[in-house]
Design goal:
single chain; mainly alpha; 2 domains; globular
Length: about 200
């Protein structure tokens, strides 16, 4: 996981998502500053901005930090502050994170995941031989605990993810693609390889 720079709201977002969403919440009598009633499902106007979200964040999952193809149908809007916890943020661009479906499902409405928008650099380290993520050892014990909660909640060290990171680095080392392509495809692994002085 690496810091993600928030991108500007698309020009049509207000008309396509926010205005429709807020009007809907008002019609339903749902307070913006309150959680949604338990079990309440709301109209997903945010789906109208999914293409813009994908393009704005260059197809990179905010949590797994790998590129994924839009055509696979794996792109989703993660509400960083869950819809169930604060209704008024359901239709706000600033609350959206581009996430692959696996990460969105794992995060769900839990609150113990670090926000990539406010994440400091170098909190997550990577063992390139194992593909395993761990906290930067110089962090305080409290911050290391936050990193470990995020790793565990999102399943970032799932064996499949570890194998994927190893493969991405091996593909770069074997010359299958350039360092620039490596950066776009697997920015976290690329960043760690650079930090460890392993980029040629």
């Amino acid at each position: 996981m690496i810091p993600v720079a928030p991108q500007a709201e698309p020009a049509r977002f207000d008309d396509d998502v926010r205005k429709k969403g807020l009007a809907y919440l008002q019609r339903e009598g749902l307070a913006l500053d309150q959680p949604l009633p338990k079990g309440k499902e709301i109209t997903p106007y945010w789906q109208a901005c999914l293409d813009d979200l994908y393009t704005s964040y260059q197809g990179v999952c905010a949590y797994l930090a790998v590129y994924f193809e839009r055509g696979t149908g794996a792109a989703s809007v993660d509400h960083f502050i869950a819809k169930s916890r604060l209704a008024g943020l359901s239709y706000e661009w600033s609350n959206y994170r581009l996430a692959c479906l696996a990460m969105n499902r794992n995060k769900n409405n839990f609150e113990d995941v670090l926000d990539p928008f406010t994440l400091a650099s170098d909190w997550f380290y990577l063992d390139l031989l194992l593909g395993k993520i761990f906290p930067n050892p110089v962090l305080s014990s409290a911050d290391q605990e936050k990193v470990n909660h995020t790793i565990n909640r999102l399943g970032l060290n799932d064996p499949m993810h570890q194998k994927m990171r190893i493969r991405h680095y091996e593909e770069y080392k074997s010359g299958e693609f350039t360092a620039d392509h490596f950066r776009k495809k697997s920015p976290f692994v690329w960043r760690e390889a650079r930090r460890q002085g392993l980029l040629s």
